[in-house]
Amino acid sequence: MGIKAVVMAGGKGTRLRPITYSIPKPLVPIAGKPCINYILDSFYDIDVRNVIVTTGYKYDALINGIMKAKHQDQNILFSVELEAAGTAGSVKLVSRFLDDTFLVGSGDILMDFRLKKMLDFHKKNGAKVTVALTTVEDPSQFGIVELRDDKIMRFQEKPKASEAFSNLVNAGLYIIEPEIMDLVPRGVPYDFAKDLFPKLLSNGIDIYGYKGEGTWLDTGRPNDMIKANQLMTEKYGLEFNNPNLSGHLIMNTIYGKLSASSIVGPSYIGYGVTLGNHCKVSGSAIYDGVEVGDDVIIENSILMDGVKVMGSSKIINSVVMNGTSLGKMCEVHDSVLAPRMNLQENSRVYNLALSPEMPEE
């Protein structure tokens, strides 16, 4: 059957609320496709055709979203957890399907890695576990590692700036031999970084570290989500250089239907988008069926499917979710607007997350 993979996609994405009140974090759109599809594509590129996705929160929406966007010949099995099992615990639940070397990745982190070299590295070293690593400027929100001669010496979770011994972090992507899962207990929450990996080190089992090749970003906050759209549009968009279109752009609507607007990359334009006269779009993602009136400014923002923006409005550093409407001369700065809201003419929204919904516990 070939090598298999597990994608962990059961978290609630609390830092992305109110966005994740409506959609599970792995489905947040990034340059035209769900976040989780980048890691699914990375697996597909090394001929991984059999994937297990572990899920819990809003599992029905997650399953439907993945099935719509996956490769036709990629087989996906879903494991729905009634109670949180932890990262290693969720893989333990499906371990009977994993009888050879397998990969594990996180579906709610933007991970667009080239994995062939990492897999070769794992096999060459006869490793039991290989952890993908990446560097970050601020390691205080991540688990850092000390690496020596390609082996991880120790882990430290979310260190204070004064205590961080490295900016090399665990990227949440692993290659594992199946016998390692025998060390994970059943029936209790169990985590890879906090529980299993320290146990392996204390038992004298080497954990290899491999510096990942590609794009990696934790999309945990709305600003990260905006940055992710910009990064992937910059990476995969075409470069334009004319008065109305400039920078890296992904254009799914013919520019002739976008009127006399200016679009500056990195920007993503979905299908069926209409822009009025003299609009200015920069560093933004505008998804399918969005309608924008005249003289609208959209900077460093995301407008999801079906958003309507009337003339002379401004949207800056913000996320506007599906089906929300803004009246004339509205301004939205550094904010998140939940789905199907209706902002009246001349509304002003600054530094707010507006949502009529409550958290699902």
Helix and strand composition category = alpha/beta
| Shape estimate | elongated
Q: CATH-wise, what's the superfamily of the largest domain?
A: Spore Coat Polysaccharide Biosynthesis Protein SpsA, Chain A
Task: List the uncertain runs.
Answer: none
Total domain count: 2
List descriptors.
2 domains, alpha/beta, UDP N-Acetylglucosamine Acyltransferase, domain 1, 14-stranded mixed beta sheet, Spore Coat Polysaccharide Biosynthesis Protein SpsA, Chain A, 7 helices, 361 residues, 7-stranded mixed beta sheet
Give an account of the 3D structure:
This protein has 361 residues and is an alpha/beta fold. The chain has 2 domains: 4-218, Spore Coat Polysaccharide Biosynthesis Protein SpsA, Chain A; 236-354, 3 Solenoid (UDP N-Acetylglucosamine Acyltransferase, domain 1), CATH 2.160.10.10. The chain has 7 helices and 32 strands. Strands 14, 15, 16, 17, 19, 20, 22, 23, 25, 26, 28, 29, 31 and 32 form a 14-stranded mixed β-sheet that branches. It has a 7-stranded mixed β-sheet with strand order 5-4-1-6-11-8-12. Strands 18-21-24-27-30 form a 5-stranded parallel β-sheet, with no helix packed on it. A hairpin with a 2-residue loop joins strand 9 (143-148) and strand 10 (151-157). The longest helix has 15 residues, at 222-236. The protein starts with a strand and ends in a 7-residue tail after the last strand. The relative contact order is 0.12. The model has no long low-confidence stretch (mean pLDDT 87).
